[in-house]
Amino acid sequence: MFSQFFGGQRQQEKRGPSMLTTLEVDLADMYNGKHVEVTVPRQILCDHCRGSGAMTDGDIKQCGTCGGRGMVIQRAQVFPGMFTNMQTTCSTCAGKGKVIHRACPHCKGAKTMSHPNTLEVDVPPGAPEGWETILEGEADESPDWEAGDVIIRVRSRAGVGEAGGWRRKDAGLYRREVLSVDEALLGFERNITHLDGHVVSIKRPGTTQPGYVETFKSEGMPPHGPLPQGDLYVEYSVVMPSAISDKTREGLEAVFASTRGSRRKDEL
Questions:
Q1: What is the pLDDT of residues 146-160, one digit of tens each?
Q2: So which domain of life are we looking at (predicted)?
Q3: For 69-83, 104-118, 123-137, which range has the lowest pLDDT when averaged over its residues?
């Protein structure tokens, strides 16, 4: 405030660019929540020169082209016979006002070095696809700016949930159960082991049509923020036997004899 009264202006420290990285986890990890460590490459200040780029402090000299000002005055012609002076950034020191005579042997004058950065992420239970968390000050370092942030975007690993019979859409979970012909006709009872290990019992006493979808309330993804508890949707498919024995064929023909006879009468 006082600096503004005296004509000054408070300078805001420049922040570097943020980094976005995608973290893939199992669908079970997004259901249950998980503490995950992820390693990403990061540029850090050289630990030998601490970001100066010089072998020693004495190797940083004032730029002889601009005299340490970082700017030079160039004379440019505007019209024939008319010239003007233009102030431009010094090309020798790139506006720094200083030049390096001997570069740091560790970073070769680059001022920064690549370093693996291990970050810790707590994926909450029920996290939606594309859930993001921001880790402040964990992006690339530079002597010219304050390190920016790392944004971690979390998604379920492609193919893993489907291979285990699970997939998701928003807060809903989807699963396909394959029934045999006798189960589809006579009914069945089986247990499904959920993503957190608890058991969901499925029991259907009658016939089940191929493609029928049964809903199990509150068995989907856990609630997260504004997203409520999801449901589980089980779709049934029926697999036909590749071949049947003569005895089985005779039995089926006896069972469906009346049905087939009625169909023939209708066709006539």
A1: 999 999 999 998 765
A2: Eukaryota
A3: 69-83
Q: What is the 3-state secondary structure (H, E, C) of the chain?
A: CHHHHCCCCCCCCCECCCEEEEEEECHHHHHHCEEEEEEEEEEEECCCCCCCCECCHHHEEECCCCCCCCEEEEEEEEECCEEEEEEEECCCCCCCCEEECCECCCCCCCCEEEEEEEEEEEECCCCCCCEEEEECCCCCCECCEECCCEEEEEEECCCHHHHCCEEEECCEEEEEEEECHHHHHHCEEEEEECCCCCEEEEEECCCCCCCCEEEECCCCCCCECCECCCCEEEEEEECCCCCCCHHHHHHHHHHCHHHHHHHHHHHC
CB atoms within 10 A of CB 53: 20
Residue 190, pLDDT score? 93
- Model pLDDT, residue 34: 95
pLDDT of residue 217: 96
By C-alpha distance, which of 156, 158, 160, 149 is closest to 119? Answer: 149
pLDDT tens track for 6-51: 444 445 578 999 999 999 999 999 999 999 999 999 999 999 999 9
* N residues, the chain: 268
What is d(CA 221, CA 176) in angstroms, rounded to the nearest whole number? 17
The bridge status of strand 188-193 relative to strand 172-179 is unpaired
